[in-house]
Amino acid sequence: MGNIAIGLFVFGAATDFLDGYLARKWDVVSMFGRIMDPFCDKVLVIGAFIYFASPRFAMPADEHVIQMATGVYPWMVVVLIARELLVTAIRDVLESLGRSGGAKWAGKLKMSRQSIAIPAVLLITVNFRPDEHLALLRLNEFLVWLVLVVTIVSSIPYISGLLHVMKKSESET
After folding, report:
1. pTM of this prediction exceeds 0.70
2. Is 118 helix (H, G, I), strand (E, B) or coil?
3. Handedness of CA 146, 123, 54, 138 (dihedral sign)
4. What pLDDT digit, counting tens, does each position of 157-169 carry?
5. How far is CA 23 from CA 16, 109, 146, in A?
6. CA distance 37 to 32
7. Torsion of CA 99, 102, 105, 106, to 10 degrees
8. How far apart are CA 36 and CA 45, in angstroms?
9. Are the CB atoms for 44 and 13 separated by under 8 Å?
10. What 3-state class would DSSP assign to 59?
């Protein structure tokens, strides 16, 4: 079942990439696409991270500590969700002010790293038992931390863009 999930995730990420590529190439932008594309991205990625933080992947480290075979802990999911909510709110504010709130290069980098790390973590976890191989557990943890750091850093252009607009509008008044 895990390998089917890997295939479905890769298919979803690949069709998302193809859709975005073709929309830019053919200069076809719709209100539906501007809403559904980021929504589907968030469901795909956050859904995977919620699944990774589930008890299914818990492995006892000692009597007081539980370690996750995927390397994903519930607090990490909260950070990912918080970033997505913050960036969505910023994009909404920018667009309500008539400014561009479109995806930044950092958001595209974030999604590409997530689209690589998620199936890799799932592949390692369901096929190679990281609870029995410390190197694989560390690889999962590395991939998850990489995604977490890139996700947090990718919010900076959105925050700085909003601060720039706010500073500019204050100086105009």
Report:
1. yes
2. helix
3. negative
4. 999 989 998 898 8
5. 11, 18, 29
6. 8
7. 90
8. 14
9. yes
10. strand
